Amino acid sequence: MSAWHADLAWLGPERGMAERVLVEVEGERIAAVTEGADPPAGATRLPGVTIPGLANGHSHAFHRALRGRTHRGRGDFWSWRELMYQVAGALDPDRYLELATATYAEMALAGITAVGEFHYLHHDPAGRPYADPNQMGEALIEAAGRAGIRLTLIDTCYLRAGLDGQPLAGAQVRFGDGDAGAWAERAGALRDRPGVRVAAGVHSVRAVDPAAMATVAAWAADRQAPLHLHLSEQRAENQACLAATGRTPAALAESAGVLGPRTTAVHATHLTDQDVALLGATGTAACICPTTERDLADGVGPARALADAGSPLCLGSDSHAVIDLFEEARAVELDERLATGRRGHHQPAGLLAAATGAGMAALGWDAGRLAPGQLADLVTLDLRSVRLAGTRPADAVDHLVFAATAADVSSVVVAGRQVVRDGRHLLVPDVAAALDRSIGALLELAR
């Protein structure tokens, strides 16, 4: 048993902020939460404001190498994708391990205690399986362990280059398993383990035909595993899908049995009213990734309409233009303000819940709330920072969502184990140096 004493702690949208909160932990899980308590002998003090661990619902770890190198260019998602493929083609398991470790350590410093890695770099650059067909996935699993955070490995099916059925070519050949049966056989060799959940991914309606989508959905259902897919990220995808099938991507996914309460639609940016109703009626979650969606000029999605229809909202940093879930949370509201000319679409507590409990649910973890039985993830922010100075309990959630940044995180506890103390990572001594080293080596190869 260990004890953690928070000056101020957020106990969820219903209970709000509480002062002098004692969190008692047995093993990996919270045993008791007591408000208005004095710290017992041996308790670790958490000065500042403590919240549940943040969940990064959508990550492509290797995109971290693109930060600062693609932003000045013109074009759109499709031109950016060609630059991304250059980096994808240079990765091998060892380089992926180093880059992902550093990237996940950066996430830990930002208060992220679990990440959903949308993984499709399965094979070598020529499309040949490694000796262990899951060697790239295992590199990601090891990386998360080294960085001290939990991983939901979303093993993703990627079979074709477009809705016209063109075969994979160039950098894409390493993504494909040939057919859905081969994908299921390879992915089926992966196993859940402490700190790791194995989930399924449909890359997109462009990359996976309806019959294959149904195979992936059945695979996930058999294992009661999360299922994620990119959905309607760009208008061009919608137009191509309508032309090829007569259906929107959401309707096509629903016809293949993909949508449902264990499913998360990533982006969900360009939806019809019927699409919104369909996602809501099936209980499909929506993972919004605002910093990537605005960086790639993808657009602003109907987050408020999705939530009203019944779709839980969660958040992801996706391409890692920045790794800051506080920025993602406020951007959901602020971007919608710009698109509509109105304020107040989302309450701050709801956005913080999207970054914590809803994200953890989408990734398959019993976490995201400071409550007995939950995994003991505690993230503390320093109220002495210039951004959070002046915070009072009554407005603390508003400060966190609309002013805090990842730099304000001072302490991170993941499943009862402290990973960050006083703003320093305890397992990766110099995260910036690790990022610089791994990115530099990769970019040399990608030239």
Report on the structure:
The protein is globular, with a radius of gyration of 21 Å. Helix content is 36%, strand content 22%. It contains 14 helices and 16 strands. It is α/β, with parallel strands linked by helices and 447 residues long. The strands form two sheets. Strands 3-2-1-4-13-14-15-16 form an eight-stranded mixed sheet, covered by helices on one side. The chain folds into two domains: 107 residues, Urease, subunit C, domain 1 (Roll); 310 residues, Metal-dependent hydrolases (TIM Barrel, Alpha-Beta Barrel).
Instruction: Output the CATH homologous superfamily of the largest domain.
Output: Metal-dependent hydrolases
CATH topology-level name of the largest domain: TIM Barrel
First-last Cα distance? 52 Å
The DSSP helix count reads 14
Mean pLDDT: 96
Largest sheet: 8 strands, mixed
Apparent shape: globular
Give me the side-by-side strand order of the main sheet.
Answer: 3-2-1-4-13-14-15-16
CATH class group of the largest domain: Alpha Beta
Strand content: 15-25%
Helix and strand arrangement:
Elements: E1 2-10, E2 17-26, E3 29-34, E4 44-52, E5 54-59, H1 77-88, H2 93-109, E6 112-119, H3 135-147, E7 150-157, H4 180-188, E8 196-202, H5 210-223, E9 227-231, H6 235-245, H7 249-255, E10 263-267, H8 273-282, E11 285-288, H9 290-295, H10 303-309, E12 313-315, H11 325-340, H12 348-363, E13 378-381, H13 396-402, E14 409-414, E15 417-421, E16 424-425, H14 431-446
Parallel strand pairs: 1-4, 5-6, 6-7, 7-8, 8-9, 9-10, 10-11, 11-12
Antiparallel strand pairs: 1-2, 2-3, 4-13, 13-14, 14-15, 15-16
Helix pairs in contact: 2-3, 2-14, 4-5, 8-10, 11-12, 12-13
